[in-house]
Amino acid sequence: MPKLIQFLGATAISLALSVPAFAEDPKPAAPEMKVDTVLATVNGTEITLGHMLTVRNGLPPEYLQLPDDVLFNGILDQLIQQTALAEIGEGRMTHRDELALEVDRRAYLAGSLLDYTARKAVTEEQIEDAYKAKYAAAEPSREYHAAHIIVATEDEAKAVKAEIDGGADFAEVAKAKSTDGAAANGGDLGWFGLDAMVQPFAEAVAAMKDGEVKGPVQTEYGWHVVKLIESRLAAAPTIDDVRAELEGDLRQKAVEERVTETVAKAKVEKMTEGVDPAILKDDSILGE
């Protein structure tokens, strides 16, 4: 390598090592975001982060799958449009509009209270108590494994029963003659509780012995010949198996009790004597 190039190369390296590196200008710190942080204004009316979060919380699940920037800008644009239009709408508000807003306000506040009531109704202790009451302390239920052959008329069902009594294989007869979707499986209905079946089908099954064939049994779906393959006592589900069901029951009960108690304590006076219920058909009363 020529001496000049060696010198220049060494000099460049020396300079690179000796000159202090300049740090990049730090990015400005992101502002602290609070519920009242203003993200836009429309003719002086503020649109805050709280407004945007409220809109987001009311969106259907499919919208929440959108990319963050798309959802953010979409909600902000929607609020800008609504705010601009609402300013004009407020200037031409009628009594009809005032009534609609008041009804919406009452509905929202009532719904908000019931949502709060439902949320507070579910604790681990309450779930455990509900489980014990509904399952752990309850008498074990019986479940049944049965098959059936369903046909259109009583005479057909009688003929099927006679064929099976004569030694024909139940499953093969079901495949050949039954008219429902279970026919392909030899009429096998799997395991079920009596509450899952229509009457008098369920009543007939409950009175049968394992291996017994009974029929004809008529239901709204046709005429059945039924075979009880076996029955057993159903094991109680675990608390985790029925957690969602128990939570739903607790919420429903709490909401119903809140409504009943609140209305009972309220001073309610109805002034409907002599009022024709058909008056609600006269929308012109609201005016334009």
Q: Can you give a write-up of this model?
A:
- A hairpin with a 2-residue loop joins strand 1 and strand 2.
- Helix 4 crosses helix 9 (243-265) and helix 5 packs across helix 9 (243-265).
- The longest helix has 26 residues, at 95-120.
- 48% of the residues lie in helices and 15% in strands.
- It has a four-stranded antiparallel sheet with strand order 4-3-6-5. A two-stranded antiparallel sheet has the order 1-2.
- With 288 residues, the protein is of the alpha+beta class.
- Among the domains are: 38-118, no CATH class; 141-233, Chitinase A, domain 3 (Roll).
- It contains nine helices and six strands.
Key features?
single chain; 288 residues; alpha+beta; Chitinase A, domain 3; two-stranded antiparallel sheet; 15% strand
Task: Provide a compact summary of the structure.
The protein is an alpha+beta fold and 288 residues long. Among the domains are: 38-118, no CATH class; 141-233, Chitinase A, domain 3. Helices cover 48% and strands 15% of the residues.
